[in-house]
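tmp note - Palmitoyltransferase
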Amino acid sequence: MLVPRAIPRMDFLVLFLFYLAFMLIGVVTICICSKTHCLKGLVRRGAQIFSYIIPECLRRAMLRFLHYLFHTRNHTFVILHLILQGMVYTEYTWEIFGLCQELEFSLNYLFLPYLLLIVNLVFFALSCETNPGTITKANELLFLQVYEFDEGMFPKNMRCSTCDLRKPARSKHCSVCNRCVHRFDHHCVWVNNCIGAWNIRYFLFYLLTLTASAATMAVVSTVFLVQLVMVSDLYLETYVDDFGHLQVVDTVFVIQYLFVTFPRIVFLLGFVVVLSFLLGSYLCFCLYLAATNQTTNEWYRDARAWCQHCPHVAWTPSAEPQVYRNIHSRGLWSNLREIFLPAVAHYERKKK
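out:
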């Protein structure tokens, strides 16, 4: 079949690549800002740059809004999470599911994303609602006996000035939740809760199922588009280019054709592919921390200590910083058992 007119070859591809780059940069920025303390520095530098352009009242309102988003407990990102998930699954149900049925896809294959969604929402709720391991006067002595102090990152006899409690090893005061958390990992804005000893296992399963659902949807969408091209014999067609020459359909033209014919599906595919890559990378990082019995807080503090010392600066032997040594790792299986079967949580449950 002769395609009567050519689709501009670069316009749609450039737009789609810009879309992927924008999504990647945006998600990475949000993840970095929500997992580290660099948001204050970014806001401060941005405020300095735009201080001569943005009125002071508007700048103050923006800073208050950012403080509310990232430094106070609120459900903004929880609602955003559910909206994005709902939009993705609505598009999947509205277009991909029905079209795949017409191509006689297996129903077990098509229902897998829904099964993963149900499991993911269960662990999402558990991550949001489970006590991460809040330290109080009642359980302070119990937590002090769980981990030994390394006299480096976690010295003895340290007190939290806010909670007026002795700080157990591996604990940290969360300024967002205003509480000290046992085996503090990080505060996650997406679940509006701290991640600590008692809910880290739920968070890992939540992250695993979210990654799996995004990857599964990406696979289903890709297989659907490939199957559509194969069934329609599009790769055997020809078209007339802008110069009036007859050309054989190539991969670039097929991608552009699918982009124009099924724009929402292609945009969805780009989104879930980027999301799968980001979530998969973060999941691997979290599994590495679990396997080596580290927390995000400990890894970050250790990395920040190393970053403060430039390699070209000469250090005297007495001035060189001490290397952090992980004294809590007891081997792979013991480390994983500590994550998924925290002893103190069972002890607290028996007391109740």
